[in-house]
TrEMBL record:
This is Ribosome-binding factor A. Belongs to the RbfA family. Signal peptide: none annotated. One of its GO terms (cellular component) is cytosol. Monomer. Binds 30S ribosomal subunits, but not 50S ribosomal subunits or 70S ribosomes. The gene is rbfA. It is found in: Cytoplasm. Its main location: cytoplasm. GO terms for biological process: maturation of SSU-rRNA. One of several proteins that assist in the late maturation steps of the functional core of the 30S ribosomal subunit. Associates with free 30S ribosomal subunits (but not with 30S subunits that are part of 70S ribosomes or polysomes). Required for efficient processing of 16S rRNA. May interact with the 5'-terminal helix region of 16S rRNA. Residues 112-142 are annotated as: Disordered.
Length: 142
């Protein structure tokens, strides 16, 4: 579980990295810049794991590799933006966030399930007589 300090720092990194991708380094991404779905920070705030959401791109691995190739440039642009707020700029490690594709896969699996309809059970109450009482003793008559 992340501490309040980690949560605040990860929120700051997420906002500033989104700004870096959109305003400072748009030349790195010819189409749409990748979205940042989650940022997780180590307890010492030295390493930040950034999960990129690449929903609208067809080749996510190529975009991820492009981001990884330009990590130093991205970290430098981030450092210029947050230098007054933090003591040390964390090491950035980028990962592909595949939660959207996983959710689509699970939705497909659930829709493909063949669930037979339920059969009527004799224990169900009849609407004319009311609910059945449970038998408390073996010799009890109905």
């Amino acid at each position: 579980m992340e501490s309040k300090r980690q949560q605040k720092f990860s929120s700051l990194l997420q906002q500033e990295l989104a700004t870096v991708f959109q305003r400072d380094l748009p030349h790195l991404f010819p189409g749409l810049p990748p979205g940042i779905s989650t940022v997780r920070v180590a307890p010492d705030l030295g390493v930040a794991r950034i999960y990129l959401s690449l929903l609208l791109t067809t080749n996510g691995d190529a975009v991820l590799q492009e981001v990884r190739d330009h990590t130093k440039e991205i970290r430098l642009a981030l450092a210029k933006r947050i230098r007054q707020q933090v003591r040390v700029v964390p090491t950035l490690v980028f990962f592909l966030d595949d939660s959207a594709s996983y959710a689509a896969h699970m939705d497909q699996v659930l829709s493909d399930l063949n669930i037979p309809p339920t059969t009527t059970n004799d224990d169900e109450p009849d609407s004319t007589t009311g609910p059945k009482r449970p038998k408390l003793f073996a010799d009890e008559d109905e």
